[in-house]
Amino acid sequence: GDALAVSARVAPLGSRLVLLLVEDMTEARRIEAVRRDFVANVSHELKTPVGALSLLSEAVMDAADDPEAVERFAGRMQYESTRLTSLVQELIDLSRVQNDDPLEDSEPVGVHELVAEAIDRCRQSADSKQITLASSGAGSGSANDLYVWGNRSQLAAALGNLVENAVNYSPPRTRVGIAGRRVAAQGGDLIEISVSDQGIGISERDKDRVFERFYRVDPARSRATGGTGLGLAIVKHVAASHGGEVTVWSAEGQGSTFTLRLPEAGSARERAEEEKRDR
Ligand code: ADP
Prior knowledge:
The chain is α+β, with helices and mostly antiparallel strands. The chain is 57% helix and 16% strand. The longest helix is centred in the first third of the chain and has 61 residues, at 2-62.
């Protein structure tokens, strides 16, 4: 009788344990698969420009007595090496945001500075397409006092990527708007920085996937604008490691709005200090 009672009590516990173990293994297997995919993707992405460079250098040698051809091939070599450089740089950025603890090097960062920096970085490509970069709420007047808590260079990279995408995926003579505002939330105020464009938009199906490493809706288009498919993965990682998030709203053919939500400097710092005191 007793034994039966005990086994009846242990059995559900046992099955729950088994279930936990199975879930753990599935998660481990998933992480392993993601890692393997990533390595395969990196290899593939590197192979393309490296392969092109090798073919082009052969072509240059074969065309030694045709200066026009040499110039043409050299131009394409330059293009491929630029691609290679930006891919390697983005891989370094990604590994940095994945490995460094942003909060170790955190400080209050002015939203107006982040916005100004992002606009500076994208000014040239915006001008060449006659795209207007307009900031509101973050650049002047009363909203000059918006501060987020975090790692300055990581936050600048994240916002820069969003503005760069907005310019890249918009037709000429459109507008890209960058706005900052404070929103009340449970556990302290948040700062919202949104980047809106009037570009090609993103379908419902692709909306979540664009944050994956190397995912592009249209690889040819991404490549044409120098994209690597890593930008939004970096943004997502930076947002999450700062205790925030990035979301997207979009209507195909009409435009997209990416919104970064980050803890406000004041409240985030107070919380961190409270935790330190409690320890
Ligand atoms: P990429 O280097 O290709 O721009 P990202 O990770 O920054 O890589 O973005 C992934 C994909 O998401 C892009 O290839 C593009 O298809 C889509 N995307 C990103 N931003 C926008 C935008 N503002 N409008 C439309 N599509 C976008």
